[in-house]
């Protein structure tokens, strides 16, 4: 029972968060459930019977409604953290797969940050902040990384709302579409070498997480 209560509590919190951004999400879910159920149940009822049509249509309608809510909840979570320092870090940390992130390997007094991600594509430097300042910050971090890893692909991604930057919602897709250049053993070696590099540098303060109080990123957005 405690697990069920916990699940329902989490669902209520996610629904409240989503409704703050998408006011009519409840009506949208109801409409999708009714439409999808009818689209499935009516044809089935002609070939078989109404009871079979309803028994097949309702589960499909619930599935469609749940999928729609998960997409809306994901979008709402992204909207809540968009533009906040560390938003990209929060998204990447929720991703599934062989990804390791070192938050804020470079940071400025204006809270512009560069985080470093290591995965099968190589090293991805993720900058957050105004383009004019972050471009310089990324270039410096790229040079420093390339001196230690001259043979490893290094990518740069800027997260923000300015031209040539990507939104927080597109971070996961941007990382997963990069070509795989390293084998798992090579990824581990790159991590060890970068850990040694980090040990040589002075520690950098990590900005506090950008997630709003009580807000949660839905599991469906974890890639």
Instruction: Report the end-to-end length measured between terminal Cα atoms.
Output: 29 Å
Rg over CA atoms: 22 Å
Average per-residue pLDDT, rounded, comes to 80
- The strand count comes to 4
Q: How would you characterize the largest beta sheet? A: 4 strands, mixed
Order of helices and strands: HHHHEEEHEHH
Write down the domain tally.
2
> Could you tell me the strand content as a percent range?
5-15%
If strands are numbered along the chain, what order do they take across the biggest sheet? 1-2-3-4
Query: What's the overall geometry?
Result: elongated
Structural category: alpha+beta
Which residues form runs of ≥5 with pLDDT under 50?
211-216, 219-223
Quaternary structure classification: single chain
Discrete helix count = 7
Which percent bin holds the helix content? 55-70%
Characteristics:
7 helices, alpha+beta, disordered C terminus, 2 domains, 223 residues, 55% helix
Give the topology:
Blueprint: H1 2-21, H2 25-47, H3 50-81, H4 87-93, E1 100-107, E2 113-119, E3 122-128, H5 131-148, E4 154-159, H6 171-176, H7 184-200
Parallel strand pairs: 3-4
Antiparallel strand pairs: 1-2, 2-3
Describe the protein's architecture and organization.
- With 223 residues, the protein is of the alpha+beta class.
- It has 7 helices and 4 strands; from the N terminus they run ααααβββαβαα.
- The chain has helices at 2-21, 25-47, 50-81, 87-93, 131-148, 171-176, 184-200, and strands spanning 100-107, 113-119, 122-128, 154-159.
- A 4-stranded mixed beta sheet has the order 1-2-3-4, sandwiched between helices.
- Helix 1 (2-21) crosses helix 3 (50-81) and helix 2 (25-47) packs antiparallel against helix 3.
């Amino acid at each position: 029972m405690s697990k069920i209560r916990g699940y329902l509590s989490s669902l209520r919190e996610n629904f409240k968060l989503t409704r703050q951004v998408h006011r009519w999400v409840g009506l949208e879910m109801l409409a999708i459930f009714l439409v999808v159920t009818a689209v499935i149940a009516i044809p089935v009822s002609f070939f078989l019977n109404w009871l079979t049509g309803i028994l097949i249509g309702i589960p499909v309608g619930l599935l469609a409604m749940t999928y729609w809510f998960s997409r809306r909840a994901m979008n709402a979570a992204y909207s809540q953290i968009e533009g906040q320092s560390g938003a990209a870090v929060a998204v990447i940390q929720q991703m599934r797969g062989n990804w390791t992130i070192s938050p804020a390997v470079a940071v400025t007094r204006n809270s512009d940050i560069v985080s470093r991600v290591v995965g099968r594509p190589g090293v991805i430097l993720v900058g957050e902040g105004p383009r004019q300042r972050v471009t310089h910050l990324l270039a410096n971090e790229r040079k420093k990384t390339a001196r230690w890893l001259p043979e490893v692909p290094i990518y740069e991604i800027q997260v923000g709302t300015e031209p040539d930057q990507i939104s927080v919602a597109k971070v996961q897709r941007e990382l997963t579409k990069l070509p795989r250049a390293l084998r798992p053993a090579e990824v581990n070696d790159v991590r060890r070498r970068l850990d040694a590099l980090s040990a040589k540098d002075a520690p950098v303060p990590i900005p506090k997480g950008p997630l709003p109080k009580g807000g949660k990123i839905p599991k469906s957005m974890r890639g």
